[in-house]
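Let us practice reading a record.
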Amino acid sequence: MNREVIKVFHLYKRFGNFTANEDLNFVVYEGEIFGFLGANGAGKTTAMKILCGLWMPSSGDIEVAGYNVYTQTEEIKRSIGYMSQKFSLYDDLTIAENIRFYGGIYRLPKKLIKERTDELLEQFSLTEYRNSLISALPLGWRQKLSFSVALIHRPRIVFLDEPTSGVDPITRRQFWELIYQAAAQGITVFVTTHYMDEAEYCNRVSIMYEGRIVALDTPSELKTQYKVDNIYDAFLKIVRE
């Protein structure tokens, strides 16, 4: 079995009297595509921010890429990539400038930044547009480029917060092909989504409801367990119960 790269035991996150995450327990493995599902307000984003080293948990034992979330947040940030729900590149910078900017944030050497900039531009057939503003690209292309930029420093884990929100079905499928490629290289992909059909593409999915994980298994096992044909129907059954 692949190595554990995320370990979460008894994670709680409280804001005053409100408990956003209640006793979360799960592990994620190297090269796994792990889906984190739940309706808005279920606690997905709170948990992801804790795993990314942005927020402190109220309690629990949590490690990400071998680092402790209480004492080694900077090491965690250097070991992960992150793509937000909203487009995360800068419209007023060119395509090449955006790539170089993020390479600098991750403290890559200038020579390596140049090499990986050229690689990404060639991968997306954008070499001749390297000096065009990001705003000139269609949304689907911007999302795919944003994902690739999140991988520029070869992280062990990449966190994707509803990355395909607002794009068309064809682009969504192309985006998931990029996710498969990353996982095949041993990168762990931790993805939140509200598209239930995308859950079918994950190796395992967890379903959150009101701050708790109420189900966690492979898509096929969840469908078998709840005697349904798709994850959407399994989700409805789980939440109603």
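A brief commentary: The longest strand covers residues 4-15.
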